[in-house]
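User: Can you model how adenosine monophosphate sits in this protein?
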Amino acid sequence: MAKKTIADVDPNGKVVLMRVDFNVPQDDSGAITDDRRIRMALPSIESVIQRGGKLILMSHLGRPKGKGPEPKYTLKPAAERLSQLLNKPVAFAADTVGPDAHAKVAALQPGGVVVLENVRFNAGEQEPEATYANALAAMADIYCNDAFGTCHRSDASMVAVPKAMGNKPKVSGFLVAKEIQYLSDTISQPKRPFVAILGGAKVSDKINVINNLLGICDQVLIGGAMADTFSLAQGGKVGGSRVELDKVELAKELLAKGGSKLVLPLDTHCGDAFSSDCNKQVVKAGQIPDGWEGYDIGPETAKKYAQLLKGAATVVWNGPMGVFEKPPFDEGTKIVAQAIAESDAISIIGGGDSAAAIEQLGFADQVTHVSTGGGASLSMLEGEKFEAVELLDNA
Ligand code: AMP
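Assistant: Here's the modeled complex, given as structure tokens:
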């Protein structure tokens, strides 16, 4: 069900409480090393301030203990970076529901912005007690969720706060709306053929994704170390490859369920040590000799997967095809990324490593959607419904 977005409400003169994901990476001195998450929230932020709204931004950063301020996790640097990006002053409140927050919110002019301190400094963010959520909700006329990376969680600022807003408007931001559009709506009514390509280290991380996608895709292509666990389930030899012995039975079940929809590698690029300069050889899948490990899909597999991807109308990709951090074992991932970039399909790249790979390779602007969420995008590909999204107003 489509949700109302921030574009559907009039923020003029109103106080908008927006949950954003400013959980940015920082170096040891606290300097922000990648401000992508702040930049991703700019369209929603600008939409409110350009229309004369008074904007309160709240976010978590890191994993503080919930027992008061911890300087390492302050959102002050994020507020300063936002001010630079907006090219206007942004206020910062040293608390979230305390006297400084109230004073700074009361002082907001139309078009003004205040960033509250880290919501996780307060125990109420992650423990079920209504006082904290009520105090946050009481400050605002409109609630907006633009924190996709946290949408699979039930923290107070994601769930209890919008609930505490009662009948006041509760809408999604543009980032959350876009993620739902692609990771949920497009996938549930895909243009066919719909091909998913899944890689990465562990079957255990992706079981629910494979299960869900086997139900809706025409083909699910498997790569990464995961493929070796499937190979073992088929009675293949995997040498010293990274496999999950306790997931072999599960792999057998997925093979039975998937039938010809589940496509496994034809060959494997192996090495005799976990480094770029090890000895290398390509072997048929399921024939990895002792003393060798599979580090990437082989060239025959890469070629086959690229052809299948080029013929698809919808593509979902999550997880690298091999140890892409150590060339030449990035070859399979590169070929797959290029095929997705060159295809005319609606292409959706799950967060985490595959998003990083497509960006590093320079293909990010040739795909339809690169998800900003790691855990959240996996959960959405599993078909999970998020309470934090469900409770927003329907369009
Ligand atoms: P994930 O977080 O599950 O998407 O896994 C990503 C990680 O899996 C990357 O760091 C890859 O280096 C690793 N990986 C992928 N294929 C293999 C492989 N065949 N052997 C060992 N590690 C792998």
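A couple of observations from the model: The domain at 182-381 is CATH 3.40.50.1260 (Rossmann fold). Residues 239 and 290 are 4 Å apart (CA to CA).
User: Helpful, thanks.
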